[in-house]
Design a protein that fits this description.
The complex is a heterodimer.
Chain A lengths: L2 H29 L2 E5 L1 E10 L6 E10 L9 E5 L3 H7 L1 H9 L3 H5 L2 H32 L3 H16 L2 H12 L4 H10 L9 H28 L4 H9 L4 H29 L3 H5 L9 H9 L9 H34 L1
Antiparallel strand pairs in A: 1-4, 2-3
Chain B lengths: L9 E4 L16 E5 L3 H11 L4 E5 L4 H9 L7 E5 H9 L7 H7 L8 E4 L2 E17 H6 L8 H14 L4 E4 L6 H13 L16 H14 L11 H9 L3 E7 L18 E4 L11 E9 L5 H14 L2 H6 L5 E2 L11 H8 L3 E2 L4 H13 L1 H4 L5 H19 L4
Parallel strand pairs in B: 2-3, 2-4, 7-8, 10-12
Antiparallel strand pairs in B: 1-3, 4-10, 5-6, 6-8, 6-9, 6-10, 6-11
Classes of the chains: A mainly alpha, B alpha/beta.
């Protein structure tokens, strides 16, 4: 392809990536080292608020931002270096806990607690999604052609549900005496509270995520199955390979590039786990890195937001994703090199 | 942190033909943003009768209110606020002083409705609210328990109810992580007559009072639903209505729901009482809800918005929706559902101490308290970590050096 043709095709997309990905990224990177704050003054203010019948007026000193001439609160932006990162990572406290092998000491810091959950969630859901996707794909592939369409449609349904809505549905099935909790209680003859401890919540989150994402893996693998070389399969049958051996030595190697593709997408997605936390309102027990960023960003009761820490937290999340993708990217690169040579 | 799930967004756009009960014909396009509970729905419905009015009712309104009002022109003309959400609007100079409009159109307002700062009217209040004790009169009578006046008596009553086994859990509480559990801690703390932040803005919770409050919460937890950390006002209200709990500290604005025959199985059985006393005052805080008008709009729009507010907060609206809230508008007839809140106020409960720094410690409490309730951290560590979190936040905001 001529360079000009290539540029004409890739140009618009590169431009949009520059505007919507690269520039915000640089911006967030810079913000994570800066902090914008209002300038406060202490003033005596008489405030009258309504009571039950009578008004109460009190005069007290209050901290207020200084207003500039344009009527807006004055702000200053200062360079804070690594401070926001330090406030999130708490390196001293964390190192102290690690040296003493004090697990609960480490988990007392929000970032490490969130990292622990994010990593276990990502790494446990990965094989489950790949495995389940593969099983459904192989099963559907061996169905009679006449019913395949309907089965594919039904298996895709979880994937098209909006994630927050899906998470809320699971929550309502299990919270309090929800239908499924009531059923479990009746079946096991014991009192069950699914939202009272971390491990049951994590289990529900894993279940939800696998249920939600497996259809994606299934569709990709199913497409791949249509291109398996039938001659190779037939010769494997003649050689006496069992069904499992055919899957292990013919089908899976053929699907390997797709498996890596699905893994990459899934790792990136599930490292940013967020909907489950909000949907299950699990922050008392389980938090994730993405939720931490969100929490810094949301204004509190009095409108304060921690933009600087939020930026630092999202940079850390991005670094985490890069690190977790390195093994797979290296493998892809090696395969690519091997093929080129 | 929070609560997408409870977010209710309802947009009402009433066609011009429906200005039935309105005194004037509104010609200016007016929009409002407020919380989404029933009282707001009643008030905005009454405003909509004048036409050209669009209300957005959203329980998560505080996430966007400041930014929306900072736009020029402001995205909304009328804002629904409470003690705490008024703070960032006033701090950023986003609300309009209302003295002129009050003089011109506000004849119906009582002095109690005018929120003043240094003499200037910045907001118009419509209702007050407080958390107070609700209990099942039938259960306490059966077991011969008198109305609990403080938390020791609540605990003793809970123990008796637990032994009798008449309900699933003797106690309910609004302890959902975030806003709810933070407010309960603040209520207990203020009940002891102490303040959470010193005059020099340093935190003051890792002390005897803080330990006492956490210890009390730990003892209360034993009589509660194990899923207490996801339990918000609606959840507690439903537990009451379904007869699953016998006592709880709950918002006055939820009291009428106990006698709602369509939902409740305990109609007439729930008594409203004062919030339990701390050693200084009731363990509760007084709140108000009201409206502000944005500063970044034209005078003409402001006038129309103010007249709409007067229409929404008139006696007619109160008489039609008497039990939705404890209105402080002329025509309100306090009924049984207001008794608990009035008793709490009469016992001397403090107003919620809204301020910039309080927002930060409140946020730190909302995120940090759960670790103690789940048993992850002990009381001292929990309080130290919350103080630390406050210091980081206050320093970042520029409040302390």
């Amino acid at each position: 392809m001529k360079f000009r043709v290539f540029a004409a095709f890739a140009g618009p997309s590169l431009l949009l990536m520059l505007i919507f990905i690269a520039i915000p990224l640089v911006n967030v990177f810079l913000q994570s080292f800066h902090n914008t704050q209002s300038i406060f003054e202490t003033v005596e203010i008489e405030t009258c608020t309504p009571g039950f019948g009578t008004q109460t007026c009190i005069t007290e000193s209050e901290t207020r931002p200084v207003l500039g001439e344009d009527g807006k609160a004055l702000e200053k932006t200062i360079f804070v270096g690594w401070e926001s990162y330090r406030n999130i990572l708490r390196p001293d406290q964390a190192w102290e806990a690690i040296k003493q092998l004090n697990w609960s000491g480490l988990m007392a810091i929000d970032f490490w607690k969130a990292l622990r959950f994010t990593l276990t969630f990502t790494l446990i859901s990965l094989p489950l999604v790949i495995g389940l996707g593969l099983v459904i794909a192989v099963a559907v592939n061996s169905l009679a052609k006449s019913i395949r369409g309907q089965v594919i449609f039904v298996s895709l349904l979880p994937f098209i549900i909006t994630p927050v809505i899906g998470a809320l549905s699971i929550r309502w099935l299990f919270i309090g005496d929800g239908i499924l909790t009531a059923m479990l209680e009746w079946w096991l003859q014991m009192d069950i509270a699914m939202f009272a401890q971390a491990w049951t919540i994590e289990l529900m989150m894993l279940f939800y995520r696998v249920w939600h994402v497996a259809p994606f893996a299934f569709v990709v693998f199913y497409a791949g199955l249509q291109t398996v070389n039938n001659d190779t399969l037939e010769s494997a049958i003649i050689d006496g390979a069992s069904r499992f051996e055919r899957l292990r030595y013919v089908v899976i190697p053929h699907l390997m590039p797709l498996i890596i593709f699905v893994s990459l997408i899934h790792l990136m997605d599930s490292y940013r786990v967020f909907e489950e936390i909000v949907g299950f309102s699990s922050q008392a027990h389980v938090i994730s890195l993405q939720w931490l960023t969100y929490d810094f960003l949301v204004p509190d009761e009095s409108g304060n937001r921690s933009i600087s820490r939020a930026s630092a937290s999202s940079m850390l999340t991005m670094i985490g994703i890069v690190i977790i993708l390195i093994p797979l990217l290296r493998k892809t690169w090696k395969d690519h090199r091997a093929r080129v040579l | 942190m929070k609560k997408f799930c409870t977010a209710v967004v309802a947009a009402l756009l009433l066609p011009g033909s429906l200005w039935a009960a309105c005194a004037f014909d509104n010609q200016v396009e007016i929009k409002s943003l407020s919380a989404g509970f029933q009282a707001w729905k009643s008030v905005t419905d009454a405003m909509a009768e004048c036409g050209n009015f669009q209300a957005e009712l959203d329980q998560e309104f505080r996430d966007k209110q400041v930014e929306a009002f900072a736009a020029n022109p402001s995205l909304y003309h009328i804002g629904g606020v409470s003690n705490s959400t008024l703070v960032p609007l006033v701090n950023n100079n986003l609300v309009r002083p209302l003295d002129d409009l009050v003089a011109q159109h506000g004849g119906q307002l009582s002095e109690n409705q005018l929120i003043r700062q240094n003499g200037q009217v910045v907001a118009i209040a419509m209702m007050v609210n407080a958390q107070h004790l609700m209990y099942r009169q039938d259960i306490l009578d059966d077991l011969g328990i008198a109305e609990p006046a403080n938390y020791e008596e609540v605990l003793a009553a809970a123990a008796k109810i637990d032994d009798a086994g008449v309900v699933d859990y003797p106690l309910g509480a609004t302890w959902k992580t975030g806003f709810n559990i933070a407010l309960d801690f603040v209520n207990l703390f203020l009940g002891e007559g102490q303040s959470l932040i010193n005059d020099d803005l340093s935190p003051s919770i890792n002390n005897e009072t803080g330990m006492y409050v956490l210890e009390t919460m730990g003892r209360l937890k034993e009589y509660m639903d194990p899923e207490i950390l996801v339990s918000d006002s609606t959840y507690v209200q439903q537990q009451f209505q379904q007869g699953k709990i016998a006592m709880a500290n709950l918002w006055a604005s939820r009291a009428a729901a106990m006698d709602d025959e369509a939902e409740s199985q305990v109609v007439g059985l729930v008594t409203m009482a004062s919030a339990p006393m701390g050693s200084a005052r009731p363990a509760s805080t007084l709140w108000w809800d009201g409206t502000v008008i944005a500063s970044n709009i034209t005078d003409e729009e402001a006038e129309a918005a103010f007249r709409l507010i007067m229409e929404g907060m008139d006696t007619e609206m109160v008489q039609a929706n008497n039990d939705d809230a404890i209105w402080i508008i002329d025509g309100f007839a306090p009924g049984k559902s207001a008794e608990g809140a009035f008793a709490t106020a009469a016992n001397g409960a403090a107003p919620y101490p809204a301020s910039t720094e309080f927002g930060i410690i409140f946020n730190a409490l909302g995120n940090g308290l759960a670790a103690y309730i789940t048993g992850e951290k002990d009381a001292a560590t929990t309080l130290a970590d919350i103080e630390n979190e406050y210091l980081v936040g206050a320093k970042e905001a520029g409040l302390i050096q």
